[in-house]
């Protein structure tokens, strides 16, 4: 079943790879360049899942997750962090903020799709 997934990453190449992977699996993709941009995309449309980087300009991923959890329409939307950050303290901060899963870059497309199937 097709899901609408918001992909938040300041790297155009990562957005492209993630977007291609998700579209190939039949999903709709909405892209954002950072947390601030992503919040403007949460405009009432149905978003089934959010995939977000941690390290971004303007608003980092952890701050973005905290903001999403304050929005009534999106507070229950599962969030997958896709990042190079493997520190336990960062993961703990992500979980505390409300992220449901943590996937490290570089990622294998099948791992991303498997995580999305479990979450969305």
Walkthrough of the structure:
By secondary structure, this protein is of the alpha/beta class. The protein has a single domain, classed as Rossmann fold, CATH 3.40.50.2300. 41% of the residues lie in helices and 19% in strands. The protein has a five-stranded parallel β-sheet with strand order 2-1-3-4-5, sandwiched between helices. The model has no long low-confidence stretch (mean pLDDT 97).
Labels describing this entry:
120 residues, alpha/beta, Rossmann fold, 5-stranded parallel β-sheet, globular
**Largest sheet report:** 5 strands, parallel
SSE ordering: EHEHEHEHEH
- Low-confidence stretches at least 5 residues in length (pLDDT < 50)? none
User: Largest sheet, order of strands side by side?
Assistant: 2-1-3-4-5
Binned, the helix content reads: 40-55%
In a few lines, what is going on in this structure?
The chain has 120 residues and is α/β, with parallel strands linked by helices.
What topology does this entry show?
Elements: E1 4-8, H1 12-24, E2 28-32, H2 35-41, E3 49-52, H3 61-68, E4 79-83, H4 88-97, E5 101-104, H5 109-119
Parallel strand pairs: 1-2, 1-3, 3-4, 4-5
Helix pairs in contact: 2-3
């Amino acid at each position: 079943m097709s899901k609408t997934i918001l992909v938040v990453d300041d790297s155009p190449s990562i957005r492209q790879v993630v977007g291609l992977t998700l579209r190939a699996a039949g999903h709709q993709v909405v892209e954002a360049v950072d947390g601030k941009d992503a919040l403007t995309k949460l405009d009432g449309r149905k978003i089934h899942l959010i995939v977000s980087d941690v390290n971004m300009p303007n608003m980092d991923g952890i701050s973005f997750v905290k903001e999403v959890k304050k929005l009534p329409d999106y507070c229950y939307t599962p969030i997958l962090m896709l990042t190079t950050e493997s520190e336990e303290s960062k993961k703990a901060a992500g979980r505390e903020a409300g992220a449901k899963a943590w996937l490290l870059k570089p990622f294998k497309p099948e791992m991303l799709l498997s995580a999305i199937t479990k979450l969305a």
